[in-house]
Each structure stands twice: as C-alpha cells, then as structure tokens.
Amino acid sequence: MTTDADQNDAARLAPEADAAPLPAPEQEPPLSPGFTDDYLLYLLAAASARASAEFHTLVAAHGLRVPEWRILACLASREGLKVTELAHQTLFDQPRLTKTLNVMERAGLVLRRSDPSDRRLALVSLTPEGRARVEPLLSLARGHEAQVLSRFPAADRRRLKAFLVALAR
Prior knowledge:
The chain has 169 residues and is mainly alpha-helical. It has helices at 4-13, 40-61, 66-76, 83-90, 94-106, 128-149, 154-168; strands spanning 81-82, 110-115, 118-126. 60% of the residues lie in helices and 10% in strands. α2 crosses α6 (128-149) and α3 (66-76) packs across α6 (128-149).
C-alpha cells in the first residue's frame, strides 16, 4: 500500500520533465596541505598498511593469521630465538607473543625448549610442520615485495630499503 507520504517522496525525488538543468557544482579549491600529507611517520604507516593488506590476503589464504606469519617468518632464518628476541623481531609485546606461541605450539608449528645456558629462558624454533607452512609464503612475500617495489627504478629500490633499514635500527 502506498501512502501519501511515499507518493510525495517519490514526486520530490523524481526529475521534472521541464525543469531547468542544475548548474554544475563549483569546483572546490584543493585542500591546503594537511599535517599528514608529508609527515614521515604517517606516510610510513600508510605505505605499510597498504602494502601489508595486499599480502595479508595471501597469508589468510594459507590458513595463517598475520601474527603467526610474522613469527614463522622470523624463525625461518633464525633457529632457537629467545622469546625476548622474537618479541623484538615480530614487533609484539611479550604477553601477546606468549599467547600466540601457546596456540602455535598446540598446532605443532613451533617448539619451545629451555636455553641450555640459562634454563630460565625459552628458545623458540620451527617444527617441520611450521617450516612446511612458512616456506611457500616466504617466496610469495619476496614476490609481493618485488611487485610493490617495481614502481621504482632499481637504484631507488636499494636506497629506499637502505633508508628503512637505517630508520628501523
């Protein structure tokens, strides 16, 4: 059932046959540069978020969450990392890392054992299953990195990575 209000709304929204065309909207002047337009930390975060989002879809397609991927990727080339070192490498605080390691250990992806030189410390390593899960993603990650960097000349790629390494240390 159509009400009078519905008909009024329809009539109000319908174009009138003999109505004059609306004037083109005025072009708004470009926004003045905002703080974040050239703020380094924002630009780094925005670039990371954009490039990471593309790769994170591949991580999810391989049945992993991003924190698990980071842990596996760090352990792929550094066997037997202390939990504190792994927290630093993955950019996680230690409680979050410990919680994720618990899940990964139950899934058979990582193994924790006592450090022989200090039994109070735990060393984290990949299991064969963890290595099998991360290996295909490592090559996909390098391919994704190459795609992200492909918009720059080779010399700029090397400089960009060198600058980022210097900032990260």
